[in-house]
Amino acid sequence: MAIGVWISLFAYFALMIVIGLWAMRTSSATAEDYMLGGRALSPKVAALSAGASDMSGWLLLGLPGALYVTGLASAWIGIGLFVGAFINWIVVAPRLREQTVHYGNALTIPAFLANRFPTKAMPLRTVSAIVIVLFFAVYTASGLVAGGKLFESAFAGIFNFGGMTDYAAGIIITLGVVLAYTVVGGFLAVSMTDFVQGCIMMLALVIMPAVVLFGEGGGGFAQASETLNSVDPTLLSWTEGLTVIGWLSAVTWGLGYFGQPHIIVRFMAIRTVHEVGTARNIGMSWMGISLIGAIALGVFGRAYAVRNGLDIADPETIFIILADLLFHPLITGFLYAALLAAVMSTISSQLLVSSASLTEDFYRLFLRKEATDKECVNVGRACVVAVGLVAAFIASDPNSQVLALVSNAWAGFGAAFGPLIILALTWPRTNGAGALAGLIVGAATVMAWISLGWNGEFMGGPGVYEIIPGFIAAFIAIVVVTLATSDAGEYQHIER
C-alpha cells in the first residue's frame, strides 16, 4: 500500500481525534452538554451533522452497489429518501425543537415521549429505550461491516497475522477511532466531526463519478450509455422490470426519516427554532448533491467496469476498487477517508443516542435517580463503549451485507417511532395508551415481517419492504387506541 494512502488516512484519523479533544473542553460539564451539545448547534453544523449521520456507509457502498446490479430502478430509494428528508425538516424539525424544551427540556426521544404522555411515562420510556438500543446495535454493526469491507478490499493481506484478518482489523480500527472522539467529546464532538465528514463525503461523490465518466477509460455519457445498453438495456430504465410492489418498497424508505433518533436528535440541538429553515436548505442541498453522486457512481461505475474488464466480485466495493485504480495515492487515501467518514459519522451518532438512552432512560430512571451530571456523563461514556462492542460482535460475519443491515434497522426505527413522532407533534388528541400501542405494534410488525421472510418474498411475488406494513400498523394502532381511550390528566398537562 502506497505511503500516500497512509498519510491521508492518518491525517483524517488525527483530525477526528483533535476535534474530539477540543469539544471535550466545553461538552462534558453537564448531561445536556454531553448528550445534546447544550442545544447550541449552528444551522450549518446541524444540517450536515443530520445528513452525515443519516447517510452512513450505505451511501458509498450499499446504494452504489444496488445501482451497479439493478441500474436506475434502485435510484427510487434515493428519491424516496430525499422527499422523506424534506418533509421531515418541514413537519418534525421545528416542532420537535420547540416541544422537547416545552415538555421538561427532554434530552432524549424516550424522555420527550415520557414527558409528552405522563400517564404512560414509565412504559413508554422503557420500551422506546429498548427499541433504540436493540435496533441501533444492528444499525451500528452495518457501519462496522462497511469499515471491515474497506480494509478487506483496500489493504489485502496487510493485517493478516496472528489470527487477525483485514476485515477484523477494519472493524477494530474504525470502532477504535470513533470511540476515541465520541467518548471524550460527546455530542459536540460528534456533530463537529459530522460536519467535516459531510464535506469530505460530498466532495468524494462529486470527484469519483466525474473521473469515472470523463477520465481515462471513461468515455463520457454516450459511451457509458452504449456500454450499459449492450449489457442490459434495463440498467438505464427507471421503470422497466420494476413492479409496483418493488417501486413502493424503494420509495417508502423515505418514511423512515420521521423515526430515526440519531437524525431527529439534531433538530433538538439547533440553536433556535427560527434557524431550522436555514439548516433545512443547507441539509437538502448537501443531500441532493450526495445522492446524485452515489447514483451516478453505481450506474456509470458498472459501465467503466465492463469497458475496462474489471472483475467486481462484490458490487458494494465498487467505490473502493475505483478509488484505488483511478487516483494518486494521496487522493485515494482521501477517498478512503470519505468512506470512513460516512461510516464513522453514523456510528458515532448512533452510539451516542444509544448511550443517552441507557444513561437517562435506564441508569438515571431505575438505578440512581439522584445521579449527578458528572456521574451521568461518565456512565454515558461507558455505555458508548459497551454498545460499540456489541455492534462489533454482530458485525463479525464478513458476509454481512451493508444495505440489508441498514434496511432492517431503518425500517425498525421508522415504523416504531415515525408515526408516533408525527402524531405526538401534530395531533394533540394523541394519548399515552395510543403512543405505547403504536410503538410496540410498529416494532413488532417489522420484526415479525423480517422473521417470516416476507421482505424477500410475499404471497408468491416479490417481497414487501417491512417499513410499509410496520408504519401503517403503528399509525392505525395509535389512532384507534387513542380514540378508544381517554385521559383527561394528559390533556390538562398539554394545555399547561
TrEMBL record:
UniProt keyword annotation of Transport present: yes
Keyword annotations: Amino-acid transport, Cell inner membrane, Cell membrane, Ion transport, Membrane, Sodium, Sodium transport, Symport, Transmembrane, Transmembrane helix, Transport
Membrane topology label: Multi-pass membrane protein
Sequence intervals crossing the membrane: 6-24, 73-92, 126-147, 167-188, 195-215, 235-258, 279-300, 379-396, 402-425, 432-452, 464-486
Keyword Kinase: no
A Pfam entry, by short name: SSF
Reaction equations catalysed: L-proline(in) + Na(+)(in) = L-proline(out) + Na(+)(out)
Matching CDD domains: SLC5sbd_PutP
InterPro entries: Na/Glc_symporter_sf, Na/Pro_symporter, Na/solute_symporter, Na/solute_symporter_CS, Sodium:Solute_Symporter
Cellular location(s): Cell inner membrane; Cell membrane
Family listed: Belongs to the sodium:solute symporter (SSF) (TC 2.A.21) family.
Its biological purpose: Catalyzes the sodium-dependent uptake of extracellular L-proline.
PANTHER family the record matches: SODIUM/PROLINE SYMPORTER-RELATED, SODIUM_PROLINE SYMPORTER
This protein's name: Sodium/proline symporter
The organism of origin for this protein: Marinobacter daepoensis
